[in-house]
TrEMBL record:
Residues 43-182, 214-355 form the SIS domain. Keywords: Aminotransferase, Cytoplasm, Glutamine amidotransferase, Repeat, Transferase. The active site is at residue 360. Homodimer. One of its GO terms (biological process) is UDP-N-acetylglucosamine metabolic process. Catalyzes the first step in hexosamine metabolism, converting fructose-6P into glucosamine-6P using glutamine as a nitrogen source. It comes from Rariglobus hedericola. GO terms for cellular component: cytosol. The chain holds residues 253 to 617 of 617 of the full protein. The lineage of its organism: Bacteria, Pseudomonadati, Verrucomicrobiota, Opitutia, Opitutales. This is Glutamine--fructose-6-phosphate aminotransferase [isomerizing]. It is found in: Cytoplasm. Its EC number is 2.6.1.16.
Length: 365
């Protein structure tokens, strides 16, 4: 079943190009300018009335909700709120307007997410599910939804289910954007970018050997920071979660500019920082944050866009990712941090597929 891989997590990381193909299959319009979903149970006129989205999930799924928020607000200009499912169900949040709820859950059995779904439905809202398990409790109770179609995920640390959720969030942003302001031409460009995602992920995976060598050098540390901005802030959270889950290294994710408001106190030669610094408007800002870490002797691991350069001597380790459309960037940027946490955990001799204290689906409160 492992097909020559050492662990399910490794297999599932390398399966991602195919998994993304499966999540996209049959989901673009014939004119190639938008995404379509069969199971929303919501016609275009109803969909047009939605003035706000609410996304709920736990753990890694909550991170994919945060990326969906970024892309929907950025491209469709519709406000989105994200909440931990476990908090939403008891928070009694005031809701106004005409929101549409999405619950995000790979397993479809997470009890907190199910509780949040029931609470939203009790209040009279329609709840759709983004889910990987056909026939799961959440899939059955939701008012419709989108299946991820990535096949079973065995490793406790979510990998291919996460990037597939990022892809579906990006497709949803496109779907909503094309019903509002996005032009046909921008839609076609967006669709082509999504179609290129599997190949870009394949390219990012080619860095595996290089990342393994870096991981061996990082495996001795006990604290690490992950720093990213905009759509890569949630990927920083995901990198930190992945690392702590499987290697038991204490790790935190922050927006890079937040560092100076507290976490910078942790920086010294024993606390490396992984920075996402893709090319674009905030590249220089991220570089300044790296300089602040370097000035305090913190080891810097920089994830940058292929072809870009950093000031001489700033980064101790550099990992590149291929240049890509904004909608695909979170997916591509996830690959190096999955590989990094996987190889660090292997170097520390941890039980990668079955980390201590964790279950694949959390069916208790
Ligand atoms: O099955 P779900 O997507 O509802 O699971 C939610 C979380 O329990 C899950 O993502 C958890 O954080 C993973 N272990 C992350 O790797």
């Amino acid at each position: 079943e492992l097909n020559g891989y050492a662990h399910f997590m490794e297999k599932e990381i390398f399966e991602q190009p195919a998994a993304l193909e499966n999540s996209m299959r049959g989901r673009f319009s014939e004119d190639g300018s938008t995404a379509k979903f069969g199971g929303l149970n919501l016609g275009p006129v109803d969909f047009r009335q939605i003035d706000r989205f609410a996304f709920l999930g736990c753990g890694t799924a909550w991170h994919s909700c945060l990326v969906a928020e970024h892309l929907i607000e950025r491209f469709a200009r519709v406000p989105v709120e994200v909440d931990y499912a476990s908090e939403f169900r008891y928070r009694n949040a005031p809701l106004s307007g005409n929101p549409l709820f999405f619950v995000m859950s790979q397993s479809g059995e997470t009890i907190d997410t199910l509780g949040a779904l029931r609470e939203a439905q009790r209040k009279g809202y329609k709840v759709l599910a983004i889910n990987n398990t056909v026939g799961s409790t959440i899939a059955r109770e939701a008012d419709g939804g989108i299946y991820q179609h990535v096949g079973p995920e065995i490793g406790v640390a979510s990998t291919k289910a996460f990037t597939s959720q990022l892809l579906i969030g990006a497709m949803l942003a496109l779907h909503v954007a094309r019903m509002r302001d996005m032009s046909f031409a921008d839609g076609v460009e967006y669709v082509n970018a999504l179609k290129s995602a599997p190949n870009l992920v394949r390219k990012a995976l080619e860095q595996a050997g290089h990342i393994k060598a870096i991981a061996q050098r990082l495996a001795k540390y006990n604290d690490m920071l992950f720093l990213g901005r905009l759509s890569l802030f949630p990927i920083a959270l995901e990198g930190a979660l992945k690392l702590k889950e499987i290697s038991y290294i204490h790790a935190e994710g922050y927006p890079a500019a937040e560092m100076k408001h507290g976490p910078i106190a942790l920086i010294n030669e024993l606390c490396p920082s992984v920075f996402f610094a893709p090319k674009g408007e905030i590249f220089n800002k991220v570089v300044s944050s790296m300089q602040e870490v370097k000035a305090r002797k913190g080891p810097v691991i920089a994830i940058i866009t292929e072809g870009c350069e950093l000031p001489e001597g700033l980064a101790d380790e550099v990992i590149t990712i291929p240049d890509c459309h904004e909608a695909v960037l979170p997916i591509v940027a996830t690959i190096p941090v999955q590989l990094l946490s996987y190889y660090i955990a292997v170097a520390r001799d941890c039980d990668v597929d079955k980390p201590r204290n964790l279950a694949k689906s959390v069916t208790v409160e």
